[in-house]
Specification:
Layout lengths: L2 H9 L6 E6 L2 E14 L3 E6 L3 E4 L4 H9 L8 E6 L23 E13 L2 E6 L2 H9 L20 H13 L5 E10 L5 H10 L5 E7 L2 E7 L2 E5 L4 E4 L2 E6 L4 H13 L1 H19 L8 E11 L2 E11 L6 H8 L7 E2 L1 H11 L9 E6 L4 E5 L3 E5 L2 E10 L5 H12 L15
Antiparallel strand pairs: 1-2, 1-9, 2-3, 2-6, 3-4, 5-6, 5-17, 6-7, 8-16, 8-20, 9-10, 10-19, 11-12, 11-18, 12-15, 13-15, 14-15, 17-18, 19-20
Helix pairs in contact: 1-5, 2-8, 4-10
Pfam family, one: Chorismate_bind
Keywords: Lyase, Magnesium, Metal-binding
Cofactor: Mg(2+)
Length: 424
Amino acid sequence: MNALRQVAALARAGFEDYVAFEKDGVWTFAAGALASITLDATHVRARGALELDEPWSGSPCAALRDVLARLPFPEWNVYGKVHFGFAGIVPALRLQGVDAPSGELVRLMVPRTEVRISANGLSVRGEDRERVEAVLAAPAAPVPEPSPVDVRNDNGNYRDRVALAVKEIRQGQYQKVILSRVLRIPFGVDVVGTYELTRRGNTPARSFLLRLDGREAAGVSPEVIVTVDADGGVVTQPLAGTRAFGRGADEDSAARAELESNPKEIFEHAVSVRTAQEELRRVCRVESVHVGDFMGVKERGSVQHLASLVCGRLDEGRSAWDALEAVFPAVTASGIPKRESLDAIARLDEARGLYSGAVLRASHDGSLDAALVLRAIYQENGAAWLRAGAGIVADSTPDREFEETCEKLTSVAPYVVPAPDNPA
């Protein structure tokens, strides 16, 4: 079996909680919780190898960092998710007069078992080596059959919401906001099978598959929110500006040329890059912050985007968690200025949950990698859905932004696999 099929087989093997995370052609499958850490608007909690239930105040990422420092292991890796609502408890972004977000905002786990799969082979760390080996030695399951979902169904008045946002932008309330729409799937979904087919059809910056506390998600992330290496190097990669991809060489080339010359798309991308620089300067040595590969084009499955790298080096006394808090939520999933765009999102969008949040892994050595949760499928309590958004600026038109959501939804919608007991 290739790496993708191996990850799918492990995800089907009955582990209660797991996170699969792909970076640069290397998959890690992390399963079972030696310790789990959760954070909401008032408390941070740990269960398992570390037991605590404490109020927190100030910086939520500092609260997480402090709990991780108390883990009873000399070396550890954590995997987990951060909901978009986490932005509502970041001190610099809190909205006056708005209630704190409810429910769990962060869930991390220190896994019992970590399986690393790459072109160089497979390694297993932890308690379930024999179980892992048995799963991977078994015959591969058949490749699942999808039941594509119609991306053009709009029950959320998306165009009307875009028109209202354009009006507010032209009134000077904010410069840019990302508005999204939910596409509900009318049947139960095989999330693992959907992940396998979606990953085959896309070229993501990161991909992920998870089941945590009964909630499932899988996605092909087009960008990282932030990556921090063990030496303090920081990279964020804002993508903004979108056109369809995969329609044939001539159409793709024409779409790319139009993307690279379109004033609306160039403006949208440039202001995102400027914001990313300002955010990194809060936690990095100011002179180290710079832009690399400005306005390149990244092909991500059914779409292509303008992309730039914004890089820096952590300042003295700063950590990877400080960097995450500085850039969260991703500017390409929220807007500019962030505080005002978050207010617009609260008024004009449905509650987002994990959509446009992060799936991440972090380590005792100070490294952290947080993938932006887009191009994903979600399933909870028997309900499954897709979601996509578009960046709204003063020159936006409702029809074009709706079309952009269709282009993005097409990264996943053709690959949705019905659950075996609930065919479409």
